Amino acid sequence: MPLDTSTYALAHLRLDGRRWSELRRIHGQISTQAAADGSAYFEQGNTKILCTVTGPQEPKRGVEVEMNVAAFSGMDRKKRARGDKRVQEMQYTIASAFQSTIFTHLYPHSTITLNLHVLSQDGSLLACALNAATLALIDAGMPMSDYVSACTVASAPSSDQTLDEQDPLLDLNGLEEQELPFLTVGTSGEEGKVLVLLMETRVQVARLEAMVSVGLDGCRQIRGILDGVVREHGRKVLESRVS
Amino acid sequence: MIFISHVSAEEQPCSSQALQTLYDPKIWVTNQSGMDLSEAALGNLRFTVATVWVKSKRRQAAAAFPQKLVDGRQTVHTKGGKYNAHAPTGLAFSRETFAKLTPGPFLQAHLQQPEPIRPNGRSLHAFRTPTIHTGSLSHSNGSAVVRLGDTAVVCGVRAEILLAADIPHPPSEDTSEDDLVERLGLLVPNVELSTGCSPDHLPGNPPSTSAQALSYRVLSLMHTSNLIRPGDLSIQYMEPASDDDLPDEGPKTVTKAFWTLYIDVLCIALDGNPFDAAWAAVISALKSTRLPRAWWDPDREMVLCSPLANETHGLRLDDIPVASTFDVFSTGSALKQRSEAESWVLADPDGFEEGVCTETATVVVRSEDGDAGGITRLEKSGGGAIGKAAMGRCVHMAQQRWREWQGVLHGG
């Protein structure tokens, strides 16, 4: 089994060799498409998402999100039907998260469209989508109150009663998401104001607080990474202008 | 997977010298005004709309347009034809606005130069250089990302097993190998354009006719060029010798299952010429496809696969056809004599040119005796401007393109 509790208790290493608080390999790039107003490519381990922003356009619909899950992205090849409810729910969650962050009062009577292309799924889909959308919006120059960063947290794998020894797991991959109860938390700002919290599995209430606090810390780390990507891009642009 | 942030030289605006001659108002206006726009033709191009409207809507201009415009027209004529840069003589538009208002004449003005040049800075027969990255998607058996200028396309190949026992009408013994792939439907391409790649292809809509046509063209090209051999896709099993066999018969090899390749092409950004980009993505992804080692287990009566990466095998693609698309811009219309119409063949059209041109031709070329030669496919539709000679030139350009692609496909 992927999370054989006995091996985890031995060395406290997950299947891919990470410890409980380690994030996966995160890579982000902005301005990947010249034709779009803003674009970004974000990878969190094997979850790869491309995001483009177009707008503002008439008519007034606020922030619109379209998520396109490629047929080759998951473990099985599956062509998503139109109006897939799970995708629609994710679209709505992302749209409402950004509705509160973007200064939409500066763009009255307009629609800002976010197009997310999921090229590969390996866990933390919603979190990765929120991070990719943040980078794309910053590339488009949209005024926002702060970065929106998100990550997933799972409750500790062992069902042992002693809670103080168990650490929640940060940033899950696909296998861990199938096995463990987890939640996705999305925050905005350095102080970690929670914008999105989504949990669809059952967990003991006593573990919830620890999970959320680990999630907030993980989001802070991811925020630092997103900031680094944006600053690196800015530095390159400045260097190419000056020279 | 790394994207190269794309600011190519071809997208830089033309030099001011080119622009100056480009927007010579003598193209638009009859000789009466004799305007000299030399001082106005700076980096940001200005085009006085007053002159356009004077030519085309003489009667309506005075009534429909604001007084300022009419005064400007009078000023232009009375002051001896010299453009007065100080008085606000009318609306002046930038190059981008001119392109939006009258795209046809905009393109025509570029092409009628002594040295024809296209609005994106390329010459008539210049193709965009492709950038290809393969093998970046972990869940797919093969993947490729192709960027052709601003057109970006992602292709993923997934292999699934089709048991021979599940085939409703198995092909007879005398079906040739070439037809087997087509009969069994072992290659399933799908080109997805409704991804928000351009304002014409908004997500959530069913595939448009052009998207469906693209999928079909890719499929028929794969079949007619015999791109994949059925031997690469079959899982065979050598039956052990039994007592029923005749003594001089060797062990029989039976095909127990086939690999079906689902080739999904997702268009991320569209700036013209989706077919070339999609075809390039398909062949790059197929070249990088690794299929696991599979065998038929007679005890469990199912196909088993090895999970080891070093036991995978690729597909044999020796002779890769390369596609080149051309658009034709023609000034012909129903009101004009055909002999008066001028036409230009544009190689690898971008989004703007595709919107203006109606006629298109695609040539697919593969190798013949080691060099470019064999024509695999010729398609042409939308008009009559390309004749025999022009088609020959297109084929020649396609062969040149084939040579360029060999370096990209086999080197990258």
UniProtKB/TrEMBL annotation, chain A:
Residue intervals of the Exoribonuclease phosphorolytic domain: 22-143
GO biological process entries: nuclear mRNA surveillance; poly(A)-dependent snoRNA 3'-end processing; rRNA catabolic process; U4 snRNA 3'-end processing
Compartments, record wording: Cytoplasm; Nucleus, Nucleolus
One GO CC term, this protein: nuclear exosome (RNase complex)
GO MF annotation terms: RNA binding
Main location per the UniProt record: cytoplasm
A family per Pfam: RNase_PH
Keywords per UniProt: Cytoplasm, Exosome
Description of how the protein assembles with itself and partners: Component of the RNA exosome complex. Specifically part of the catalytically inactive RNA exosome core complex (Exo-9) which may associate with the catalytic subunits RRP6 and DIS3 in cytoplasmic- and nuclear-specific RNA exosome complex forms. Exo-9 is formed by a hexameric base ring of RNase PH domain-containing subunits and a cap ring consisting of CSL4, RRP4 and RRP40.
Cited PANTHER family: EXOSOME COMPLEX COMPONENT, EXOSOME COMPLEX COMPONENT RRP41
Protein family (similarity comment): Belongs to the RNase PH family.
Name this polypeptide is given: Ribosomal RNA-processing protein 41
The organism's taxonomic lineage, starting at the top: Eukaryota, Fungi, Dikarya, Ascomycota, Pezizomycotina
Automatic annotation (TrEMBL), chain B:
GO MF annotation, one: mRNA 3'-UTR AU-rich region binding
InterPro entries hit by this protein: ExoRNase_PH_dom1 (IPR001247), ExoRNase_PH_dom2_sf (IPR036345), Exosome_comp_Rrp42_subfam (IPR050590), PNPase/RNase_PH_dom_sf (IPR027408), Ribosomal_Su5_D2-typ_SF (IPR020568)
Pfam families: RNase_PH
Domain Exoribonuclease phosphorolytic: residue ranges: 127-292
Coiled-coil region list: none
Main location: cytoplasm
SUPFAM superfamilies: Ribonuclease PH domain 2-like, Ribosomal protein S5 domain 2-like
Subcellular location(s) of the protein: Cytoplasm; Nucleus, Nucleolus
Gene3D superfamilies per record: GHMP Kinase, N-terminal domain
GO cellular component: cytoplasmic exosome (RNase complex); nuclear exosome (RNase complex); nucleolus
Keyword set, alphabetical order: Cytoplasm, Exosome, Nucleus, RNA-binding, rRNA processing
Spans through the membrane: none
GO biological process: exonucleolytic trimming to generate mature 3'-end of 5.8S rRNA from tricistronic rRNA transcript (SSU-rRNA, 5.8S rRNA, LSU-rRNA); nuclear mRNA surveillance; nuclear polyadenylation-dependent rRNA catabolic process; rRNA catabolic process; TRAMP-dependent tRNA surveillance pathway; U1 snRNA 3'-end processing; U4 snRNA 3'-end processing; U5 snRNA 3'-end processing
Family to which this protein belongs: Belongs to the RNase PH family.
Listed PANTHER family: EXOSOME COMPLEX COMPONENT RRP43, EXOSOME COMPLEX EXONUCLEASE RIBOSOMAL RNA PROCESSING PROTEIN
Protein's UniProt name: Ribosomal RNA-processing protein 43
